[in-house]
Amino acid sequence: MKIAVPIASVEEAEVLARAGAGELHCGFGPDPRAGSAARQPGGFHDPRALLHAIGAAHRHGATISLALNPRGDAGERLAATLSIAESFLGMGGDALIVSGLGLIGELFRHVPLSRIHADASGNRRMRGAALLYRELGVPRLALPRDATLDDACAIAAEVPGLEIEAFIHHGGLPHPPRRAASPGMASPRHGRRHGETAGRLLGPHALPSLLGGGVAVVRIASAESPTAVKLASVRMAKAVLGRAEAGEGDERVIRLARAAAQPGRAGHLRHDPGAPG
User: Fold this and answer.
1) Region annotation Disordered: residue ranges (predicted)?
2) Has residue 265 been placed in a domain?
């Protein structure tokens, strides 16, 4: 299982990839003060910095993906988005994260579908979207932030051949054990039958179940967090996954995750120094 984390600087790319993040996510656009239609909040504004971030990711064995979130006039937006996408891939970037079938259709005329990761944010018909994207040849679907544990594992099981990416929140929240899901269970209603709320994010203690359920990527939901929190989150996720992959019992791994996710004295996530990684 790959750990993905958002970055906003070359320094974060170096630190987080070195710590074990297998995939870095970022945005790109001109200086936000210019009010460009192609602006990407929280991303890079200098192509040279983005190029250095790509190099940093690859030096440490990580991949880097660019989130496309075009804004403004439709014609200007599309032209700017296509230019950014082609430039990023030309620099050596690995994949584009794209929300919306229409934009994927436009990009498909310019870049291989194998370099596009679909983002299902806001799409509650996740299973249908997963089946469609697999048929189109898109290699990955990122589930919405409020997707439940059962959502993620059921879709991963029902749509083999498509990588499923799920969010985890670095703080964590209590989550019930996963039950075997039937084919029609990937829906918001299913999660609530387990006492969940629609807006609840998965915590790090869900990692063993996500791993066992065939989820390929976990994305740490920390776009607005300081680098120190992102770093602690990556280390924690790596430690938990390392123990789960080594075959330690789920209960022991979950206890480690719950303990690691508690705020430390500095207000950051604690990392067990005795854990792998």
Assistant:
1) 176-198
2) no
Phi, psi of 217 (to 5 degrees): -140, 135
pLDDT one-digit tens code per residue, 159-173: 999 999 999 986 543
Give tens-digit pLDDT for 185-208: 333 333 333 333 334 568 888 899
- The confidence band for 4, taking pLDDT boundaries of 50, 70 and 90, is very high
Q: Give dist(CA 85, CA 89) in Å, integer.
A: 6
Burial letters 127-153, b for 16+ CB under 10 A, else e: bebbbbbbeeebbbbbbbbbbbbbbbb
Quick one: how many helices (H) and strands (E) in the chain?
Answer: 10, 8
Predicted local distance difference test score (pLDDT) of residue 54 = 98
- pLDDT tens digits for 79-114? 888 999 999 999 999 999 999 888 999 998 899 999
CA distance 52 to 59: 10
Q: Is residue 104 part of a domain?
A: yes
- Tell me how many domains the chain contains: 1
- Residue type for 267, please? G
182: CATH:
3.20.20.380
Residue numbers of the domain that contains 17: 2-260
In a domain, 271, yes or no: no
Which segments of the chain does DSSP mark as H helices, in order?
10-19, 47-59, 74-90, 101-108, 126-136, 149-158, 188-192, 207-212, 227-245, 250-260
In a domain, 277, yes or no: no
Q: Write the single-letter amino acid at 169.
A: H
Would you say the C-alpha torsion 78, 72, 5, 104 has a positive or negative sign? negative
